Amino acid sequence: MSALTLAACGGGDEESGSGGSGGAANSFSFAFENASGGQENPWQLLADQYSEETGVQIETQGLPPDSYGLSMRTQLQGGSAPDVLMFSPGAGNANAVLPMAEAGYIEELGEESAALIPEGNESLFEIDGKVYAQPTSIIPVGMVWNSSAASEAGVEVPADESAMIDACGTLAGDGKSFLAAAGSAPPNMGLMAMAISATRVYAETPDWNEQRSAGDVSFADSEGWQATLQTIVDMNEAGCFQQGAAGGGFDAITQGLTQGTSLGAFVPGAAATELANASPGLNLQVQPFPPADGGEPFLLASPNYALSINASADEGAKEAAREFLAWMAEPENAARFTELQGGVAITGPDENLSPVYEPVADLLENGDYAPLPNLAWPNPGVYDALSTGVQGLLAGQGDVQSVLESIDQAWDQ
Fold first, then answer.
1. What is the pLDDT of residues 221-235, one digit of tens each?
2. For residue 180, which of 97, 109, 98, 271 has the smallest C-alpha distance?
3. Is 173 exposed, middle or buried, given 0-12, 13-18 or 19+ CB atoms closer than 10 A?
């Protein structure tokens, strides 16, 4: 379930951090999101491994995703934050790194960290050419697809939107759905809209966010964003989602995918690995969402999480933190983290690419993907407006144009 909420899964204790409180070169504190409360967390497991190999003591602090961003901001402002912090790249999420860097709370990093940033993602990690976060892996986002259930239903991945709408009608007649949606969870609605926007907006205009920042375009006047939200309306009317989708939670996604009553869902690629590991025999893959008629496949994939160093940590803790980040950047350890998290190597697809991503391997290899759009948006309110707006559309409330206008208003705040 943790991956479904775009958060890292469980791990870590609830001890407070030691940022700026006398750490030494053989110890530091480390904060990260803790969704499930268990110990099988990639951050925790790598921290434990590092301690075993080096003897460096790491005090971990795990916090729930819904409070993590606020907690870290509060601790940084109060001078009590941990030495190493997990952040989201860019500025569009509650736990985003760039606003913290702009406020002077985050330490500038070196060339080793900069070298890990995927091409085209520099603006998510840098301010005026200075790097403030080190990415860890790439998480593709498209449709997580139950290949076995699709074969049993006689449905192939649709080549375009028209074929998808036809498949929706066929499946609905058989008591199944093309997609499972968590309509009561705004983040899932936002993720769905972004995944659809990959082909409708960013495939043709990869710099759309930059144009919006410059005031050259808007959501309300964008044909691509209009098509994105209209696709959701059309899918809803065609019965593409499970019954009661507007009130569905994340359990509707897990049950639909694992039981085969829904063929796909909008969740991060790491969730496919998590669900497959929890359900032996479940054959899940990441597929690109069908493009508009005449369009080409395109994907979202980006480094959703990164590590930063607290600028107010004492020098001993900073030194220990830099050594930890350098260790995390070593190919063997980076590969281990990618395996545990269920993503793609930060350097791109390699021989260890999970079978989950085989359908999109060519897109990843050829660079036919864009980062998650909201990472580059100026504040979390933009994504909130998109998420709640789509939530209303699924419930039959509001209209496409008013939703897009509300997103523009959030952007300009």
1. 999 999 999 999 999
2. 271
3. exposed
